[in-house]
């Protein structure tokens, strides 16, 4: 029998892919999700149980943590729309902060010794060009409540591991993208570039808007570091293994490919992959978008022994395209 992992938010996009990869690696998994954004059909049928509950609810957590004896936890639950977080910050402080605090309390109460937390490049804000590619020690000045709550949770976890028998690893994902053949990205509303581009190619949208072309980048559009979700999932498994050994109690890693692509380059590659013209108009900037976010992930490679296996963006987009073609209405069908 493998170790038993509690995956909070395991019915969401990144969580469900992690669940699949954990099971493939030999772990046993219980998924805990309030299903506000999750999809039952995204959850691998081999999980021991899909528990519907809220991480902010002490009773829900106590019930699942009393029923099973977990070796570790992964925490994917969050609200994660940057623009919405600026408009309704208290929703983000409530769900993200309170959820993480209640979960940390429950893990310490029930003697679960390891947690992997979904952090984000948004904790770095708009980094000074001298800090790009962005390493772990780059100054952290979030420009929106979403990034601010994630940074506060990192700090909360650091102090909690200092005081309790708990180890934590915070993984700062850059732009998660791509899919497995049967598990993909279905957010409603969809705000991410690659699924929006592919919805145009599927005929679900007429065209897309490019949010600004006057940034200080090679073609004026924002540069991002797109990382395949399966590579992210493998970093989670490496983090679990690392914390089982003589690791520090608190760890942070930036996860990307170190290859920055502009919005226009993503659209152009998607035209090549799909064979569709994908009409796109340049519109105004979106509030809070930094010009360039590219990861320096050498620390994850050196310390965790993690490698990027699906690094080229064409294969990332191709995997997403295959999923979208098979699921034109997402999981709804
Ligand atoms: P998602 O919305 O698809 O998944 C989140 C899951 O958590 C959903 O299934 C939702 O129902 C569940 N959830 C939310 N609040 C909950 C609560 N209070 N109790 C129980 N379940 C709850 O999001 P995703 O894109 O898979 O992102 C997963 C994590 O990774 C998030 O924490 C996000 O902030 C972080 N992240 C995502 C990206 C990205 O590019 N998608 C980048 C950086 C960080
Ligand atoms: N974009 C467009 N048009 C669209 C959608 C997006 O031009 O219709 C642009 C955005 O302005 C941005 C780029 O495409 O420049 C990528 O946007 P996404 O919304 O796909 O991703 P973000 O970079 O805004 O955010 C994602 C995650 C965050 C995480 C961040 C870290 O959603 O959680 O990556 O890089 F913090």
TrEMBL record:
Functional pathway: Carbohydrate metabolism; galactose metabolism
Q: Which organism is it from?
A: Carpediemonas membranifera
A molecular function (GO) term: UDP-glucose 4-epimerase activity
Protein name in the entry: UDP-glucose 4-epimerase
Name the chemical reaction catalysed here: UDP-alpha-D-glucose = UDP-alpha-D-galactose
Q: Which InterPro entries does this UniProt record tie to the protein?
A: NAD(P)-bd_dom (IPR016040), NAD(P)-bd_dom_sf (IPR036291), UDP_G4E (IPR005886)
In this chain the NAD(P)-binding domain maps to 6-310
**EC class of this enzyme?**
isomerase
- Set out the biological process GO terms recorded for this chain's protein: galactose metabolic process
**SUPFAM superfamilies in the record, alphabetically?**
NAD(P)-binding Rossmann-fold domains
What is said about its interaction partners and assembly?
Homodimer.
EC number(s) per UniProt?
5.1.3.2
Instruction: Give the UniProt keywords, A-Z.
Output: Carbohydrate metabolism, Isomerase, NAD
Q: Where are the transmembrane segments?
A: none
């Amino acid at each position: 029998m493998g170790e038993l992992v509690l995956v909070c938010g395991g019915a969401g996009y990144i969580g469900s892919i992690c669940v699949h990869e954990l099971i493939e690696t030999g772990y046993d998994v219980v998924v805990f999700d309030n299903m506000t954004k999750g999809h039952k059909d995204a959850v691998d049928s081999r999980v021991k149980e899909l528990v519907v509950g809220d991480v902010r609810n002490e009773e829900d957590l106590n019930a699942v943590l009393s029923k099973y004896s977990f070796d570790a936890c992964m925490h994917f639950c969050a609200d994660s729309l940057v623009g919405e977080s600026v408009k309704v910050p208290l929703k983000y402080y409530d769900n993200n902060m309170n959820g993480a605090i209640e979960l940390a309390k429950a893990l310490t109460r029930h003697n679960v010794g390891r947690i992997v937390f979904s952090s984000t490049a948004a904790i770095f804000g708009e980094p000074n060009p001298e800090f790009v590619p962005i390493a772990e020690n780059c100054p952290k000045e979030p420009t929106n409540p979403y990034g601010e709550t994630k940074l506060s949770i990192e700090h909360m976890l650091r102090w909690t591991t200092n005081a309790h028998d708990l180890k934590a690893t915070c993984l700062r994902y850059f732009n998660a993208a791509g899919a497995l053949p049967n598990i993909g990205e279905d957010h409603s509303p969809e705000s991410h570039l690659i699924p929006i581009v592919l919805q145009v190619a599927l005929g679900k949208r007429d065209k897309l808007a490019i949010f600004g072309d006057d940034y200080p980048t090679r073609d004026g559009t924002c540069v991002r570091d797109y990382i395949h979700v399966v590579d992210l999932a493998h970093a989670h498994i490496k983090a679990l293994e690392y914390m089982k050994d003589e690791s520090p109690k608190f760890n942070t890693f930036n996860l990307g490919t170190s290859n920055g692509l502009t919005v226009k380059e993503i659209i152009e590659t998607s035209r090549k992959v799909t064979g569709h013209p994908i009409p796109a108009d340049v519109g105004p900037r979106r509030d809070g978008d930094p010009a360039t976010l590219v990861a320096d992930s050498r620390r994850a490679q050196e310390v965790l022994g993690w490698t990027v296996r699906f690094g080229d963006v064409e294969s990332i987009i191709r995997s997403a395209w295959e999923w979208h073609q098979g699921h034109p209405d997402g999981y709804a069908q």
